[in-house]
Amino acid sequence: MTRYIAAIDQGTTSSRCIVFDHGGTIVAVDQQEHRQIFPKPGWVEHDAQEIWTNVQSVVQGALAKLKITAADLAAVGITNQRETTVVWDKTTGLPVHNAIVWQDTRTDRLVRDLAETAGQDRFRDLCGLPLATYFAGPKIRWLLDNVPGLRGRAEAGEVLFGTMDSWLIWNLTGRHVTDVTNASRTMLMNLETLDWDASLLAAIGVPRAMLPEIRSSSEVYGKATGDLAGVAVASALGDQQAALFGQTCFAPGEGKNTYGTGSFLLVNTGHKPVHSKNGLLTTVAYKIGNQPAVYALEGSIAVTGSLVQWVRDNLGLISSAAEIETLARTVEDNGGCYFVPAFSGLFAPYWQSDARGIIAGLTGYITKGHIARAALEATAWQTREVVDAMTADSGVSLTTLKVDGGMTANGLLMQFQADVLGVPVVRPVVPETTCLGAAYAAGLAVGYWPDIEGLRANWKKSAEWTPQMPAAERNRQGRKWKKAVQRTMAWLDADDDG
Questions:
Q1: How far apart are CA 261 and CA 303, in angstroms?
Q2: Cα torsion 83, 85, 91, 93: sign
């Protein structure tokens, strides 16, 4: 009898395979990091072949740890770093260029050109997104313009585009598909029709022949080969939508924040897309089989967990990510120091791709402990700005924030998050909700779980932080944060390259 569901999480810094039982409990995990490639300032790439090799390795590792085989799996689901763009040869299966990562800013000039006449919201009514370097469509265009002969091959259908879900599904099954959540991050899909939009393709300059078929988030795309031979590949969800699903935010108004490389706050808005007036993204939350799509408002923050990595790798202030909390606790506060990590520009709610990072308020008093604390606090302040935008768009004030992701292990950060929001912050028993969401969606597709109501019963609270900061202090620090943010803007000049 089949007992388990596996989820492959292809993330920005690593790939994981997690195996879950019927209660949604983790029973095996394997994980492997991949290289971060920085060819130029502002450019970020991954080797898609390296990632595929690592995915095969972590699948083998997770099955071996549990001492099971593919025959013990009911299905496998996929969740992935969104917007990261790979183009590969249809015949050989080899990438034509390194994958361009969602953080990459090389398309800044192209984005400015596209926005020149009609502004940053030129395509927002159709795709729900502002013009920004974040999204996949301009990244495809950059490859077509800069890899010799690629446009002709794309128009002839000789090369294929995909976000990382498509790349993995292709390698697992030979099928060229994506799901609605990932397609909604390209700037090329119409939010209403859930299909590629001819006017968007023409404006951005992407041939339809290279694009995958758009499918639901929970259905069988095909049977896997290799280590997972015969297992149904039965879900695909962009990582943040997968976390929303894993947190069982199935009703309008329910939301979560995931703290990973970046941080992403999503709120379910039901079966109709809600267009933001306050710098948020309108995106597809999920689509289960033939049921209507569910939409979400999203606030995307580019740099949160990756700032801790930067403090570790670039500054050398800590030797492991966990040490940042210990270092930050050596001081009582930030000493007046604020760190705005606009390494890839500012995302929500500002969408300023010409911004760059800044540490403000430096004095001779500041120590490495203050810088570590300011780096952690940056995540909480960026989240606060997104929550404020959500409240402005929806008219509903947040009462509790559900949280997940690796940074939720940092108690100092979670307490400060509750302090600056003024509401409780709650973490579930299973914090790996991204993988859990992919597993849930795959399980629903093959009948392993009968319906979403059964999934709600699996959600349990493991920790809660309540606000302790006085409102006056919260407001004072918030003013300082906003002053620091203003100083990051318009850093790039017209003749700068990224």
A1: 6
A2: negative
Residue among 436, 427, 421 at smallest CA distance from 468? 421
- CB-CB contact of 256 with 266 (8 Å): yes
Global pTM reads 0.83
Averaged pLDDT for residues 207-217: 97
Average pLDDT of the residues in 21-31: 93
Q: Measured between alpha carbons, how far is 198 from 208 in angstroms, rounded to an integer?
A: 8
Residue 497: pLDDT band by 50, 70, 90 thresholds?
low
Here the tokens at position 81 are 């770093």
Q: Which residues contact 72 (CB under 8 A, 6 or more apart)?
A: 2, 3, 4
> What is the distance between the alpha carbons of residues 262 and 481, in angstroms, rounded to a whole number?
18
Report the mean per-residue pLDDT for the chain.
93
CA–CA dist 446, 448 (Å, integer): 6
Q: Rounded to an integer, what distance in angstroms lies between the CA atom of residue 448 and that of residue 437?
A: 14
Strand (E) or helix (H) holding 481: helix 471-486
Q: For residues 103 and 44, is the Cβ–Cβ distance under 8 A?
A: yes
CA distances from 372 to 324, 361, 379 (A): 6, 14, 12
Helical spans, DSSP H, in 302-367: 305-310, 323-328
**Tally of CA atoms within 13 A in the half-sphere of 73 that contains its CB:** 34
Spell out the alpha helix ranges (H) of 25-148.
48-66, 108-115, 124-127, 136-146
